[in-house]
Amino acid sequence: MSAVRLDRITHAQDRIAARVRRTPLVLSLSLSALCRAPVHLKLESRQPTGSFKLRGATNAVLSLSNEARKRGLVTASTGNHGRALAHAAKAEGVRAVVCMSALVPGNKVEAVRALGAEVRIVGRSQDDAQDEVEKLVREEGLTAIPPFDHADVIAGQGTMGLEIADALADTELVLVPLSGGGLAAGIAAAIKGRLPQARVIGISMERGAAMHKSLRAGKPVLVEELETLADSLGGGIGLTNQYTFTMCRDLLDDIVLVSEDEIAEGIRHAFVAEGETVEGAGSVGIAALLAGKIDVRGPTVVVVSGRNIDGALHQRIVDASPKAAISAGGLGR
Ligand SMILES: *Cc1c(COP(=O)(O)O)cnc(C)c1O
Question: Is 257 found in the same domain as 173?
Answer without folding.
Answer: yes
